[in-house]
């Protein structure tokens, strides 16, 4: 019965991607853009979605609740940095290297099917929940992106706003 649940989760990820991509594209096509409204609504919905997705994983038994909390915190810390950079620097980065929202959804979809086949993985002879290992990698990646962008944007703002 778990495989149909995995299929349903992946279908929902696809619907999320389609809806998330479609609204801005349609607005641009119709020349009826509302940039501040769209930016705000899109990102607040993404924030609630991340909270519910990761919170659900933390309550599911597939991920340790403390790691789920750490993952949510890392996600929100990166989000705060991105939104501050958008306001202060005028630069909004949606992707980092090869990683963007579409690639993340693809990894989540594939990971969902792997999860139901192999929820526990062995690393150096020790058993770990697949979602815990994934969370540690995601936390490390998001914290690294946050630190690199924080340094980059702080240096840029310092240079642009020198005290004379």
Topology, element by element:
Blueprint lengths: L1 H29 L4 H26 L4 H24 L12 H17 L2 E4 L2 E4 H31 L4
Structure summary:
With 164 residues, the protein is mainly alpha-helical. The chain has helices at 2-30, 35-60, 65-88, 101-117, 130-160, and strands spanning 120-123, 126-129. The protein is built from 5 helices and 2 strands.
Describe the structure.
With 164 residues, the chain is mainly alpha-helical. The protein has a single domain, classed as Up-down Bundle (Four Helix Bundle (Hemerythrin (Met), subunit A)). Helices cover 77% and strands 5% of the residues. It contains 5 helices and 2 strands. It has a two-stranded antiparallel sheet with strand order 1-2. Helix 3 runs parallel beside helix 5. The longest helix is centred in the last third of the chain and has 31 residues. It starts with a helix and ends with a helix. The model has no long low-confidence stretch (mean pLDDT 87).
* Total domain modules: 1
- CATH 2nd-level architecture: Up-down Bundle
Q: Tell me the fraction of residues in β-strands, as a range.
A: under 5%
Q: Report Rg.
A: 18 Å
For this structure, the CATH topology is Four Helix Bundle (Hemerythrin (Met), subunit A)
Largest sheet: 2 strands, antiparallel
Element-level helix/strand string = HHHHEEH
**Order of strands side by side in the largest beta sheet?**
1-2
Number of strands: 2
Helix content: over 70%
Helix-and-strand structural type: mainly alpha
